[in-house]
Every structure is written in C-alpha cells, then in structure tokens.
Amino acid sequence: MLIAATDIEILTRFGRALADPIRCRILLALREAPAYPADLADALDISRTRLSNHLACLRDCGLVVTVPDGRRTRYELADERLGHVLDDLRTAVVAVETDRTCPDADKRACC
C-alpha cells in the first residue's frame, strides 16, 4: 500500500496540534461553539497572550479559522468534520486502552 506524503504531512500537522493540552482544550471548546478570544481565555483560565500563541498554531495547522464579526474576530473549527474527528479519536483511544499514558506527554510541539 502506497501512502502519499501529503497524507503523512496532514496527520503529522494534526498530531502536533493535539500534542499540547491547551490546544486540545481550545479545539474541544470550539467543537461546542465558535468563540471570541477573550471568552476562550476566560473559559480556559489562561492569559490572552498564551491563548493567542496557541490559536496562531492552530490557524497555521489549518484547524481553526477566524471570522470577522464587526470589530471583533471569532474563532471556529476550520471544518465541522473536525468536531466529529475529535469525538471519534477520543472514543477510539478510550476504547483501546484507558490505563495508558504517552511517554512523551511532557514534550510540547507546535505546527
């Protein structure tokens, strides 16, 4: 079976985005509904600067997009299917093994 380099790049980009717990929390929050950065920062209890860095990473990875809304900018998942992918991935991992942790869980990577 031949695997295209673009497929590997896409999965690698997605994996890097999910490698950080804050980015996971952002994606899960946006899965529920689009949000403004200030509201996300408050909901996730992180600084706006830190949130901005993570949102930039997620934008660069192609997972979130900005939507102008008057003088404000709202963030949302780049594709509604990403919400389903997050749910499926979470369910699949839990179904496989619930008592395992990733040995590289402390390493942080950005796209």
From TrEMBL:
Transmembrane segments: none annotated. GO terms for molecular function: cadmium ion sensor activity; DNA binding; DNA-binding transcription factor activity; lead ion binding. GO terms for biological process: response to cadmium ion; response to lead ion. PROSITE patterns: HTH_ARSR_2. The keyword Ion transport does not apply. Residues 3-100 form the HTH arsR-type domain. Keywords: Cadmium, DNA-binding, Metal-binding, Transcription, Transcription regulation. NCBIfam families: HTH_metalloreg (NF033788). Homodimer. Metal-responsive transcriptional repressor for the cmt operon. Binding of cadmium or lead causes the repressor to dissociate from the DNA. This is HTH-type transcriptional regulator CmtR. It comes from Streptomyces mutabilis.
